[in-house]
Amino acid sequence: MQPRAIQVIVVTFITLLIAPFAQAHTGMHGTSGLADGFMHPVTGLDHLLVPVVAGFWAAKSGRHCLQCIMLFLLLMLAGMLLGVAGLVFQQLEVTTILAFVLPALVIAVAIARHDLFAYVFFGSFAFYHGVAHMLGMPSAAPVTGYAAGLLLSTGLLLALGIILRQIIMAHQHHHITH
Q1: How many CB atoms lie within 10 A of CB 175?
Q2: Predicted confidence (pLDDT) per residue in 57-73, tens digit
Q3: pTM of the model
Q4: Contact assessment for residue 127 and residue 75, using Cβ atoms and an 8 Å cutoff
């Protein structure tokens, strides 16, 4: 096995082990929907950092940046829809299935096509968190408002990652030319 594939597998396992300690779901929920959904991504380290890092990475892709961001948000929305289906059909054990399928997919892609690892990693995160956010949504909050707030806030965090990458690149360019 190549050293790069081993590194990717190790990082994947570490990420999966650390994620439960992010403390994003504190049990304190309101019922306003839009505001709750908008504020949720800033209530935990994983919710805050992953979209920023995904935006940073998307900015690296250059002209495909907007498509990467839109794909992240669409995968998150798809996960939200599956999460809502899990709320409607209580016997659907969505998170149990995803807890095994998504890490296996990420590891398989890391081994087979490490050039696609970031797409699969961030896409899996977006999809899984879409599901988890709908299943963990405050019961009194309206689904559409909560989902809209969550997508809007996540989109802003993705944009923050793009801006940070641009600032760092401009700073590096400035040091190279001077």
Answers
A1: 8
A2: 888 877 788 888 999 99
A3: 0.74
A4: yes
